[in-house]
Amino acid sequence: MDAADPRQLEFACELVGEAQRIVVLTGAGISTDSGIPDFRGPNGVWTKNPAAEKASNISFYLAEPEVRRAAWQSRLETSAWTAEPNRGHLAVVDLERSGRLHALVTQNIDGLHQRAGVDPDLVIEVHGTIWYSRCWECGDRRLMEEMLQRVRNGEADPACELCGGIVKSDTISFGQSLIPEVIDRAMKVSEQADVLVAIGSTLSVYPVANCVPLAKSRGAKVVIVNAEPTEMDDIADVVVRGSIGEILPQLFAPSSNT
Ligand code: NAD
């Protein structure tokens, strides 16, 4: 990956350095350095296997037992269980320590921001978390590990122990509605930001991508950090193109935040 343009990075550091209420919006790109592939990047799950997009849709999951069995197998094997936070996640912790992280809106479901040490109360997981399961019928929520143990013990598609319903990870699949209170909170904090920094996302998944124009319309400066163009580059005040692991430690370095 090419090094970031130093002028763009410097301007981004100025905007972040002057801000008091920073909202960070992260996507799958912040976790690729931890070994978790994104969807649409060059090594993304969907880029390499377009059929995988179908399996992420809630209607196929509910209708086809075969899709669910494959999903449970892939949950067992996902790299996310052993992934460690990387420099990008740790840089966000540095920003929090400066006292100016207003909120962290994440599309990620891997829990790595909390593992890195960000206060869970500041993290808004708009697409849920893989660390819990949820019954589609009765809503029973429990630690994912309990369900994975049942899969390891031979249940290919374990049903809810309370009602017999279909169980999935407590994430928002494509075609599934978001939790209104959660996405509303993401929009509210975006309205309150003086700088919004969008990191590692194509900004093509809605409604969360709307955080960016909403913040902008309320007067926030918008900084985008991503290896490739995003759908919101046109409205950004500055786009820093390059490696998140290289850029964030500079952007959120304690010295540039005073
Ligand atoms: P995306 O796959 O659409 O885009 C990721 C972007 O990050 C790409 O443009 C890619 O070029 C960039 N990128 C990847 N690694 C990078 C790096 N090291 N440095 C700089 N840029 C890098 O991701 P999205 O916009 O978040 O949308 C994917 C959806 O899938 C989200 O809704 C998310 O919930 C989910 N998802 C989550 C995870 C996770 O939790 N880690 C992983 C895959 C998908």
Protein model, in words:
- Helices cover 36% and strands 17% of the residues.
- The chain has 2 domains: 1-36 and 84-127 and 178-258, TPP-binding domain (Rossmann fold, 3-Layer(aba) Sandwich), CATH 3.40.50.1220; 37-82 and 128-171, SIR2/SIRT2 'Small Domain', CATH 3.30.1600.
- With 258 residues, it is α/β, with parallel strands linked by helices.
- It has 11 helices and 9 strands.
- Helix 6 (87-97) runs parallel beside helix 11 and helix 9 runs parallel beside helix 10.
- Residues 27-29, 31-33, 36, 38-41, 44, 107-110, 127, 200-202, 205, 226-228, 243-245 line the site of nicotinamide-adenine-dinucleotide (NAD).
Give a short summary of the structure.
The mean pLDDT is 94. The protein has 258 residues and is α/β, with parallel strands linked by helices. The chain is built from eleven helices and nine strands.
